[in-house]
Design a protein that fits this description.
The chain has helices at about 20-30, 50-55, 65-70, 85-95, 110-120, and strands at about 35-40, 40-50, 95-100, 105-110. By secondary structure, the chain is α+β, with helices and mostly antiparallel strands. The chain has one domain: CBS-domain, CATH 3.10.580. A two-stranded antiparallel sheet has the order 1-2. A two-stranded antiparallel ribbon has the order 3-4.
Length: about 120
């Protein structure tokens, strides 16, 4: 199975300058735990709940921006990648989401939940 078959194509993203209180509202509104950070259409990072919690040791929700807490070394894969390989990457790198990138543009995202759902449906 290719990752394009199970990725979420409606990707919620944020900008590096957004304040953390806005990001928490987005996470709650869309019922997600993290999102790619995009600037001028290009992926520049990823931010998740644990990044925000770590960041709050150094500032407040209204002071800190996404750029202060995001992970910049983002692991991405193309839509043609094997879902099994993406699952292995998640386990090895201890990550919960992988942006799907094609021609330098985020075209989807796959989470651990997406992979579990795909496995359960195949079963």
């Amino acid at each position: 199975m290719k990752v394009v078959e199970l990725m979420n194509k409606d990707v919620v993203t944020c900008h590096p300058t957004e304040k953390l209180n806005i990001i928490l509202n987005k996470l709650e509104l869309f019922n997600i735990a993290g999102m790619p950070v995009v600037d001028k259409g290009k992926l520049v990072g990823i931010v998740c709940q644990s990044d925000i919690l770590r960041g709050l040791k150094n500032g407040s929700m209204t002071e800190l921006s996404v750029s202060d807490v995001m992970t910049t070394d983002v692991i991405t894969v193309p839509p043609t990648e094997s879902a099994v390989l993406v699952a292995k990457i998640m386990v090895e790198k201890h990550i919960n989401r992988v942006p799907i990138v094609e021609n330098d543009k985020v075209v989807g995202i796959v989470t651990r939940g997406d992979i579990i759902k795909a496995v359960a449906e195949c079963g």
